[in-house]
Amino acid sequence: MAPSHQARAAALAGLLVAGILLCTDASAQNAANCDTTCLKGFMDGYIDALSHRDATKLPVLKEVKYTENGRVLDLGEGFWHTAGAPIRYRDYIFDPGTGSVAAFTALKEYDATAEMFVRLKITSNKIAEIETFVVRVGDQRWFAPQNLEHMSDILAQTVPAAERHTWSADLQLERASYKGTMVMDRRFPIVDLEHGTVLAVGTFRRDGSDTSTLLLAEMFKVTGGKLREIRAVILNLPNGAGTGWTAR
Predict the structure, then answer these.
(1) Which domains, from first to last, does the chain contain?
(2) pTM summary value
(3) Long-range contacts of 115-119 (CB under 8 A, 24+ apart)
(4) How far apart are CA 86 and CA 51, in angstroms?
(5) Interval 96-123: pLDDT, tens
(6) Residues whose CB falls within 8 Å of the CB of residue 62, separated by 6 or more in sequence, listed in order
């Protein structure tokens, strides 16, 4: 029997809270010298450069990896040719310990609006990784960009120290099944202790060769061991599509 939405939320909260452990020494050793303010500057700079369609403004490593909707592209290709001005919506998630930052946002694209998830990895004060999903009208049935500017600020609210947890750097949920859907290749690349948020990226696949694959980026808000809110950027792609990144 398929679980209810309440049961699914409880299961997700349990899976997330079950992963609460002390961060490993290895994570501390690999921490980038870039605090939350620094990470926000990188993200805002990335989105500004994108809106001006000028990737030459970005401080990137020579071997920077860039993906858009699961495909590896040269930086400056894809959405860089069509992106316009950003709208007034941006949710951030920061992890200074690993030099990682992500955002859910949206930009104009000609006369329409494109929703975007972007994750950056900062190494030696340069961008080493760029992962993006760009979602347009028709890409998935839940697309409602007109509502984005009216979202609450719950993800931006800090969590009182007594309600915070220290999460392990290697949180992973390899597979979970809901109503015949398989969650594959799930990663938890960013854990934001200050705001009680976790970023999960993966794919949803259904059995059968003629079905589609959903690329999914989710932000979970957890306080006091309870799941408070989930926000997601979802993209519908042909069956078998992947994120372009390896679970780690």
Answers:
(1) 5-28+155-238 (no CATH), 31-139 (3.10.450.50)
(2) 0.82
(3) 115/143, 115/145, 115/148, 115/233, 116/79, 116/233, 117/217, 117/233, 118/43, 118/46, 118/47, 119/189, 119/190, 119/199, 119/201, 119/217
(4) 7
(5) 999 999 999 999 999 999 999 999 999 9
(6) none
